[in-house]
Amino acid sequence: xTGLVIRLAPRERVLLNGAIIENGDKxxxxxxxxxxxxxxxLRDAIHPDDAKTPVKRTCYLAxxxxxxxxxxxxxxxxxxxxIEQLSQVFLDIDSSRHLNDATNAALAGExxxxxxxxxxxxxxEARLLAAxxx
Length: 134
Description:
Elements: E1 4-8, E2 13-16, E3 19-22, E4 28-32, E5 39-41, H1 54-67, H2 72-87, H3 93-107, H4 111-119, H5 122-133
Antiparallel strand pairs: 1-4, 2-3, 2-5
Helix pairs in contact: 1-2, 1-4, 2-3, 3-4
């Protein structure tokens, strides 16, 4: 296994096993070799007050595990349940693929990959919610 590779922009911050790491003035790549390390890009983080939609709430569950603020053994079932609920709404092939990827990653304990797959649904959710307001 090659590990997780994260490419950071200048001054970008990442949360790694509870420690905030800030990149210097140049772009860089980090290769995380430790299995099951908790990694979260702070630019991708969802503030609790912003977790108001179904996809954002599901992303937030994965984020809690990544940040170390929630135990995987306590949050995995609610996370999988939330993904299953999303699959009842997002029925197109592409969304189903992202949800399937999120489910498989969560079952494997790969919560960064879970969050990454779920984030692909955020633009779709925004379009659906905007269409409802019209």
